[in-house]
Design goal:
The chain is an alpha/beta fold. 42% of the residues lie in helices and 16% in strands. It binds 2-phosphoglycolic acid.
């Protein structure tokens, strides 16, 4: 059996409640015939419960959070725990997104704790990583990705990895309009499977979904998704337009 096909939309800090609900209902309408594709949206924390309620009976459509605390509970003003997310119907959480690593200085140690908390609360993790422009230019992209994966994933077991998806997001492609070519994406995704195979097993490497993220849109998704080791996309900007997001869902 082949791997799942997945399209995930990271809304970042966009939409208000009404806009969020309108967007979900349009995406729902425009994508319901694509039940073979797993759809996940990552709205802001404040709308997660509403979003989940509005999708209650929708097939293969899940809600996720863009972040969670590395702590389980207590005096951490402003933080949101994995248990809270689980209790409002979240099934997924993003960990390691480059904006969290860069703007909020999240370290590998914090990412490990976030993943531990997420898994403990039955959330599936989409672990994000990818090289900076200078690293790509200097030919260090494979080395960087290897380190990002090893530093975090070596702390988990193969059965824990079974509850995780990976998202390769070259930082130079995020929100820039510049996309990795299908050749660059395929080459890196195949390399990621090799690392997973070395760290765990070839069975896990073959079964783990690996998404591509970074200016993936309605125009380039089909070519990217046709690559043998690309199982779908983590979409930022284009996930805020229902028509574009649905076109991406229809791109397999
Ligand atoms: P983008 O964002 O599609 O706007 O480049 C991708 C992401 O940050 O996940």
């Amino acid at each position: 059996m082949g791997r799942k096909k997945i399209v995930a939309g990271n809304w970042k800090m966009n939409t208000n409640l009404n806009e969020a609900l309108d967007l979900i209902s349009e995406i729902k309408k425009g994508s319901e015939q694509f039940y073979g594709v797993e759809k996940i949206i990552f709205p802001p924390f404040t709308f997660l419960k509403n979003a989940n309620d509005s999708l209650a009976t929708t097939t293969a459509f899940f809600i996720g959070a863009q972040n969670c605390s590395e702590h389980s509970k207590g005096a951490f003003t402003g933080e949101v725990s994995a248990e809270m997310l689980s209790s409002v119907g979240c099934k997924f959480v993003l960990v390691g997104h480059s904006e969290r690593r860069t703007f909020f200085k999240e370290s590998d140690e914090q990412l490990i704790l976030k993943i531990q908390n997420a898994l403990k609360n039955n959330l599936h993790v989409i672990f994000c990583f990818g090289e900076q422009l200078e690293e790509r230019k200097g030919g260090k992209h494979f080395e960087t990705v290897k380190k990002q994966l090893e530093n975090v994933l070596k702390n988990f077991s193969e059965s824990e990895l079974n509850k995780m998806y990976l998202a390769y997001e070259p930082v130079w492609a995020i929100g820039t309009g510049e996309t990795a070519t299908p050749q660059q994406a395929q080459e890196m995704h195949a390399y990621i499977r090799k690392i997973i195979s070395e760290l765990f097993s070839s069975a896990l490497a073959q079964n783990t979904p690996i998404l591509y993220g970074g200016s993936c849109n309605a125009q380039n998704a089909r070519e990217l998704f046709s690559c043998a080791d690309v199982d779908g996309g983590l979409i930022g900007g284009a996930s805020l337009k229902a028509a574009d997001f649905c076109k991406i869902i229809a791109s397999f």
